[in-house]
Amino acid sequence: MTLLLDDITLTYPDGDGRLTALDRVGLEVPAGTLTAVVGPSGSGKSSLLAVAATLVTPDSGRVVIDGTEATGLSRADAAALRRRAVGIVFQQPNLLPSLTALEQLQVMAHLGGGRPRDVRERAAELLDSVGLAGQAHRRPHQLSGGQRQRINIARALMNGPRVLLVDEPTSALDHERGAAVLELIGGLTRERGTATVLVTHDRGQLGVADQVVEMVDGVLAEAGVRGGTA
Ligand SMILES: Nc1ncnc2c1ncn2[C@@H]1O[C@H](COP(=O)(O)OP(=O)(O)OP(=O)(O)O)[C@@H](O)[C@H]1O
């Protein structure tokens, strides 16, 4: 199992007590498949992604990424595992205004090392696979919202992650562009064999998912399978 969340409980301080954001959550995501997480605002979806990304340590339970148990690692080792094996697509692209599309991707890889020539080739190939081969020289203000989100996705794939975590990628896009971005994420998942978790409010677009789970008050339940009714 490429991504395994086993019996995860996460609480936050809340006044005198604790608020349970994740309540004994279990999730298995095989390589090359996409799991969509739906659920109301405040139900714990972002917390789930943060735990899967090793950005937040749960109170109890295990996170296993590509065979390595992340829970219990030192901060430095968790960061190294994250760099090697996890790609994160945040809701807002947060692209650097002065860099071209190609450079946004190159910067990501330089942080992790790698020969400049290989990095450039990989960046160009990824831009091509998200449909932006012709836009490599453009800066963020010269691109549409949908194009910026595609760069955001390509950037997360630069270091060849085994696990891809995507938070609300369509919230700033209209229906049609949102659908195209979800199709793209589904296609990349299968092509690159990532274990992908996608948080979305958009229940109309879940056909791309192999598994749909629903978060309600920190509890995760199966909501349907590919082609299901969720
Ligand atoms: N750092 C924090 N400290 C305290 N409580 C928090 C913190 N982060 C989130 N929470 C609370 O934990 C619960 C789950 O929040 P989370 O952000 O995971 O929900 P969500 O489903 O992603 O919501 P949304 O769809 O609105 O983004 C909420 O009740 C929220 O108020």
UniProtKB/TrEMBL annotation:
InterPro entries: AAA+_ATPase (IPR003593), ABC_transporter-like_ATP-bd (IPR003439), ABC_transporter-like_CS (IPR017871), ABC_transpr_LolD-like (IPR015854), MacB-like_ATP-bd (IPR017911), P-loop_NTPase (IPR027417). The keyword Zinc-finger does not apply. It comes from the Bacteria. Pfam families: ABC_tran. CDD domains: ABC_MJ0796_LolCDE_FtsE (cd03255). PROSITE patterns: ABC_TRANSPORTER_1, ABC_TRANSPORTER_2. SMART domains: AAA (SM00382). Keywords: ATP-binding, Nucleotide-binding, Transport. Residues 3-230 form the ABC transporter domain. Signal peptide: none annotated. GO terms for cellular component: plasma membrane. One of its GO terms (molecular function) is ATP hydrolysis activity. This is ABC transporter ATP-binding protein.
